[in-house]
Predict the structure.
Amino acid sequence: MMINNLFKYSQLVVATLFLGLFFSCTKEIDFNQAKEFTLEPQVASSLVFFNAPATKFSVNNTEINTFKDSVIIDLFSRGFVVDHVVKSEFVFEIANSINRSFNVRIDFFDDNDIIRHSFAITTSGSSANLDVITTHTEVFEGNTLNNLKATQKVVLTAQALAGGVPLNDSTPGNLILKSKGIFYFKIEAS
Amino acid sequence: MKRISYFLGLITCLSFSQNKQLLYGFSEIPQSLMLNPGGEVKHKGHFGIPLLSHFHINAGTSGITPYDLFAKDGIPFNDKLQHAVNNMKSTDFFTFNQQIELISGGFAYGKNYEKNNYLSFGLYQETDFLMYFLKDIAILTLDGNANHINKPFRLNHINFRGEILSVFHVGYNKKVSSKLNYGIRGKIYSSIININATKNKGSFITTEGSNNFYNHHFNLDLQLQTSGIHSMASDDSNFTQKDVIKRVLLGGNLGLGFDIGFTYQLKPQWTLDASLLDIGLVRHTKDIITYQVQGNYDFEGINPLFPEIDSEQTAEDYWNDVVQSFEDVFTADSTTTAYTTWRPIKFNASLNYAFGKKNANECNCLKDDVGYLNAVGAQLFAINRPKQPQLALTAYYYRRLFKNLRLKATYTLDSYSFNNLGLGMSTHFGGFNFYIMADNFLQYRNIYDAQSVSLQLGFNYIFSKNEN
């Protein structure tokens, strides 16, 4: 009997304390909004660089006009990048203080060694050995982005163009390349 | 069933604060001794109804509330999220705390005519979780680094700790004179689960490089300590409920601690009291895994055509070196070194003024010496947290109504809000005691916008002093 009364009483107490609250306890709220959640970070990363004095293009006073090397790189074809990168820009800056024109070419190969994308940047020679700045932005969107995402190997070629004074062990000046990539991600909740 | 669902609704949609300002000093409720072992004891014995004697839950946010993010206001969710991230600080936090008493009891002893010692004891389970807002990590995730060149993303923003433990305790309360009470409570902790990531350091920053556009500097010193999780989470785990019970019953990682407190009557109507709780530590020696990521690395890009070192290194080797360096820095090492965690120490103090004696001619001639009917006072609460202590200041009014009902109303200023009103009541029918208390009533108008509310309730049987 005692216990019954007690429970009745405490029910009343709980009711008075909280009943009102449950009738007026919320304003309109919509948890489904979380489905709209989208992450759109922009990631900037340094890519390749070099700083080659003109003398690098000469061995025993004989000009070597082409340097070429490849990097096996699976970064662009990783699942996370493939799924979420919606656009990418590669920005290059070449400073040339050698009295000779150069061509820097970048080729993108897939895992069948088939070339998927390619571009080249030409910089003119600097007769006064002052920096001649050439910039280039390569935008990857749509098909070109798909080609980037298929890339397994990148080949970088720096070539002294024909014409002008041959490069030897005492040619002044440098060929400096800097590059960065901006990767635009879009990660959706649903 | 309906009552339970209301109750669950209350727990889910409210957020609560760790402070038990309503229960503190509420000497008719035996559980007030858990907040001050040197509190006044007005009864000669009690036992808690097992599992129902004290239930406490809280979760709090000093920053955003669910309403800030999910209000149906037509503003795009991402804008609200971005706004929230920009406005919150790395010292903003989210907390969750829950306690349930499994057993509790106590009795007075001493000379027959003056039993001025009180021994109380019990076993309760507690969950405590605290996470600071990962501000820089949130910005990096939302924005990326491209628009934050030269901004260090600080890794000490990753700061959280959590534990589930059971606590065995025995408390001794002594009434030295009519003016002074003191008490001490010894505790044995048995940790069921612990995670601790409060010592992270380092940063990630992108600056202008010397050889390339950018230099990316990684300085990582991250540590996550865990105990009690590996045996549950591993694939070949044969962890069962029995193991949980074993850990509750002193089979977990053990620790020791104590509470102390006193109550002193300054003048007939003025009292001062204070307590320190959970001065203690847990030594984690069993079922430990500590993950560590440490290292420094600078990345300016790759230089395949003309490596600076004129070696025989091919571009392939060069690239492999870069990959290896990244892996060395970012791979987590796991160890099983024992570690110690401190319990969050809590401090309570209050100054109280009692007034309004019951008129003698209203007396129903029972020996109902209840003293004053009203009390007002100020309480201070502080809890030690990894970055900085949290503080709360409370003003209260206590009222005894009729023979069976005591009420307490509080107004609290704390890290969560400046408009926290609380209400608590304790009912006494015969020996049965039921109490319930909750705060932040103003925020009930929109529960999703509440930053903190605390709720305690419980049932006891009390042997009162004037009972024959």
